[in-house]
Write a structure and sequence with these properties.
Low-confidence stretches: none
Strand content: under 5%
Order of helices and strands: HHHHHHH
Structural class: mainly alpha
Number of helices: 7
Distance between the termini: 22 Å
Radius of gyration: 16 Å
Length: 179
């Protein structure tokens, strides 16, 4: 089961490889965003594409800890959050007028999942996990408010990811309640 701890590192490694190739071979022009007029499969590539190393580093520093917190619950939960974020990204990619990319949608999905699952399950460990998450990353919730994020930052992508994480928490709680 130690391999499950490596999965977030491998996914993050994909993003770093894409950015290295982008910067070294394409001078920062090889972006893989999702958005209007782009293929729907770009919802799958957008999390691995960033607007430079600064963008990727800032996402990486939050992505890994939140990923590992979700992985403590299980790899099924982790991939379910990714799926939930991808599902909520589809309408954003189809309707929202500007393209976006980066791991922040997934980051907000992980955050939404961790904040809600404890409340839904009402068990000590998940509640504690949610409380720790809120304490460490609660200020990030302000970026869900339109106009608070800086220009060029997709607050709708953050909000969509957060909603995807929360929907995943509801689905996973129901799934565990059925077992």
């Amino acid at each position: 089961m130690a391999a499950r701890w490596l999965i977030p590192l491998l996914l993050l490694g994909l993003a770093w490889c894409q950015e290295l190739i982008d910067q070294l071979l394409f001078q920062g022009r090889w972006n893989l965003p999702m958005g209007p007029g782009l293929p729907l499969w770009s919802v799958l590539t957008a999390p691995f594409s960033h607007a430079g190393f600064g963008h990727l580093l800032s996402n990486s520093l939050v992505f890994l800890p939140l990923s590992w917190l979700v992985v403590t619950r299980g790899i099924k939960d982790y991939f379910a959050v990714w799926l939930g974020v991808m599902i909520t990204a589809v309408p954003i990619a189809l309707i929202w007028p500007s393209a976006s990319h980066g791991l922040s949608g997934v980051v907000y999905g992980l955050l939404g999942y961790l904040l809600l699952i404890g409340w839904l399950e009402r068990r000590l460990a998940p509640v504690a996990l949610g409380a720790i998450t809120l304490w460490l990353y609660g200020t990030a919730l302000f970026a869900l408010i339109p106009g608070v994020s800086p220009a060029g930052v997709s607050w709708v992508g953050h909000t969509g990811g957060f909603a995807g994480g929360m929907l995943t928490a509801v689905a996973m709680q129901r799934d565990s309640g059925d077992s």
